[in-house]
Amino acid sequence: MHIIVTQCSFFAMINSKPQAFSTALAPSSFSVNTARTAKQSIVKSDFCVEAKKLTREIAHDFPFFRVYKDGRVVVYRPHTEKIPPSDDPITGVRSKDAIVSAEPPVSVRIFLPKITDPSKKLPVLLYIHGGGYCMQSAFSREYHNYVATVAAEANVLAVSVEYGLFPTRPIPACYEDSWAALQWIASHSGKSGPDSWLNDHANFDRVFIAGDSAGGNITHTLVSRVGKLGLPGVKIIGAVLVHPFFGGGDDEMWLYMCPENEGSEDRRMKPAVEDLKRLGCERVLVFAAENDSLFERGRNYVRELKKIGWAGEAELVENWGSEHCFHIIGNSREGKAEELLQKFVAFIKQE
């Protein structure tokens, strides 16, 4: 569509120019051809005007992207700078990438903290980045640095998943890719998986799942699925949901991104009671930011867990005076962001 519109615009520009011919110099056959060309020009011009009109007409305008009537989707996506894995000489954290699946494409970045005692096994953290299901990356500078910091502070072997994003891969790709990453981690529980770091250093009796924004939502879905289906060889101790992206009145964008949705009560956007009752972990930590439009949804998640009598331990931390995902956007080692980080780390270290 982009090429056709561009070509039509080019033709319309040329063919719309008036043609002047001298009847004294032009034979009748030339006049006939000129008339035919002029008629074709008008048809092409009219078609291209309509095509150009379609490229400007908006079908849907959502907070994170715009859909035009010609089918184009324009994501309001800031440039995501992706950086390669690296070794940090200061913290001693090493990182590398691994492929979980070639089709669909799913990969992870693994962070190994400094090993001081090779005989001691490390807890495992699956981290799921945010970005409204259509932005960001596990390989971005922001998320690489944040997960590396958590790995160093909590002394945890962290795995950050690179899942499919809308519009290239609509929802439920984000859920299925993250589930595939969790299963991939579990495949190492017998110490014969494809990654040596997980085989050699992971304690599969202490596994955590965490994420922010969309990643917080996905975290809930994974833990609920573990409660329903189980995950052989792995014990999920806790889940951390930072400013989770749950539904509540403005769900049209999520529903559009998920063509095979179940309507406004889709349990992936609005956690169902039966899913909450069977969360497959022992503890849940939820952060909710006061100046975030999702503030009450995060608080309600914890309230609902306590209301239904979930057998685990649920804790709510309210980030007063803070914006959505402030700890990722700014410096994670300053002020309230440092407080959030240390609470996150303490949750993982808690025995």
UniProtKB/TrEMBL annotation:
Gene3D superfamilies for the chain: alpha/beta hydrolase (3.40.50.1820)
Ranges in coiled-coil conformation: none
Protein name (Swiss-Prot/TrEMBL): Alpha/beta hydrolase fold-3 domain-containing protein
PROSITE patterns, per database record: LIPASE_GDXG_SER
SUPFAM superfamilies: alpha/beta-Hydrolases
Catalytic residues (UniProt): 213
Source organism per UniProt: Acacia crassicarpa (northern wattle)
Molecular functions per Gene Ontology: hydrolase activity
Family the UniProt entry places it in: Belongs to the 'GDXG' lipolytic enzyme family.
All copies of domain Alpha/beta hydrolase fold-3, residue ranges: 125-245, 252-327
